[in-house]
Amino acid sequence: MMTPPRLAAGFALAFVLAFAGTATAYHTRFVADNCNYAVPTSTSYITRDGSAAVALRARHEGYQWAGGCWNDNDRDDAPSDPHEDPYTGGEGGDCSGFTFKVWREALDTGDAGFRQWGLLRFVHGPYTASAFRAGAGAPNVTAPKWGLVKMDAFASDGHIGLIYAVNPDGSDQIIEAKGEAYGTNIWTRTYRGSSSYSGVRRIGWSS
What we know:
By secondary structure, this protein is of the alpha+beta class. It has a single domain (5-202), classed as endopeptidase fold (from Nostoc punctiforme) (Alpha-Beta Complex), CATH 3.90.1720. The chain is 21% helix and 21% strand. The protein has helices at residues 5-21, 30-34, 48-56, 95-102, 129-133, and strands at 41-43, 68-69, 92-93, 114-116, 140-143, 153-155, 160-166, 172-179, 183-189, 198-202. The strands form 3 sheets. It has a 6-stranded antiparallel sheet. Strands 1-4 form a two-stranded antiparallel ribbon.
């Protein structure tokens, strides 16, 4: 099942307009002082291991609801921002913004190609966790949980996390942007056995 392109585009447009309308209402100045809007680089050769390396550069960084910009200094440079406020200007992505950037997706939901986004490029992408769960967008498909591997994802209606490694006991090491109090990190999770989570896969990997 795919979200109609007009709905996905509407979400992205509403987010951009809302952010622009409140750009002065920062709680911190991380985005204002550090982030950019550079054009991403298209590439045709992308591996799961390469995207895992991209994900690791966000480890120990912050969490920002509806965010998408972070550095690589192993700390949250905008801690204790208000929860569920996209206008605080803090460091980090949220779970879906993190996934979008690690999966190197395009802003056009009909484009399945790969885009290299810089760490400090402020971009969230058009997808919510729920949209990812439904396999919305050309790059994304639903997949059976038993067959998921490194850099596939588990998604619920409110959260998405990427598989960093599969554990022998049936659990997984999940790299995810978890929340303001937790930031982005790797945790052992049992999403594979939870009925709230479905399997999601980004298509087109080179290896």
